[in-house]
Design goal:
heterodimer, A: about 120 residues, mainly beta, seven-stranded mixed sheet, about 0% helix, B: about 110 residues, five-stranded antiparallel sheet
């Protein structure tokens, strides 16, 4: 079974530029998550999708971050314009089970450096 | 909002010794999960606890969910160098679906 695929693995941009990350979850996983992990901290949920609908985006900085999951499969996360504090690893995860159970399968992450 | 805290933040352990890391939630949880992240890697699921007072074992790892479902612990016996990494607990509120991660316990093993 293929895992969660993410790209790019690394991205370096200057502040005020834009960046987009792509995620393809495990086949058949209805729930998709984007987490932000700043160095030395735990993952912080940015947005959670159930199929192509948003379940939770309460911690997504909507003035600069956007995410979509068209057709309920792969997803993109965009940052525009980027700030220095956006430097982090952006982890995509998917889970198979609906509701309040189910382990998360994480991708390798996309490491963003904002200069 | 919901907060999940882990202590200690760092754990230096002599190889062969035991240690315990603790996870505390500001709210009652429906379930709690534990993940391990190796240096440079991504979080990998270890286990999920659902019932009050539940205890589960995986080889040298023992996981416990508190009676009030607000705290959890991970105990590792006879620590090995392969145990190096950061251990995260992550909890879901009783009425919600969002999985909130703690700050993690970074484990370093001295050979």
């Amino acid at each position: 079974e293929a895992g969660v695929a993410q790209s790019p693995r690394y991205k370096i941009i200057e502040k005020r530029q834009s960046v987009a990350f792509w995620c393809n979850p495990i086949s058949g996983h209805a729930t998709l998550y984007w987490y932000q992990q700043i160095l030395g901290q735990g993952p912080k949920l940015l947005i959670q999708f159930q199929n192509n609908g948003v379940v939770d985006d309460s911690q997504l900085p909507k003035d600069r971050f956007s995410a979509e999951r068209l057709k309920g499969v792969d997803s993109t996360l965009k940052i525009q314009p980027a700030k220095l504090e956006d430097s982090a690893v952006y982890l995509c995860a998917s889970s198979k089970v609906k509701g309040s159970t189910g382990e998360l399968f994480f991708g390798e992450g996309s490491r963003l450096t904002v200069l | 909002g919901q907060q999940v805290m882990q202590i200690p933040q760092y754990q230096h352990v002599q190889e062969g010794e035991d240690f315990t890391t603790y996870c505390n939630s500001s709210t009652t949880l429906s379930n709690i999960q534990w993940y391990k992240q190796r240096p440079g890697g991504h979080p990998v699921f270890l286990i999920q606890l659902v019932k009050s007072g539940e205890v589960k074992k995986q080889k040298r790892l023992t996981f416990q969910f508190g009676e009030a479902k607000k705290n959890s612990s991970l105990h590792i016996t006879a620590t090995q160098t392969t145990d190096v990494g950061t251990y995260f607990c992550a909890g879901r509120k009783a009425a919600g679906n969002k999985l909130t991660f703690g700050g993690g316990t970074r484990v370093l093993v001295k050979p």
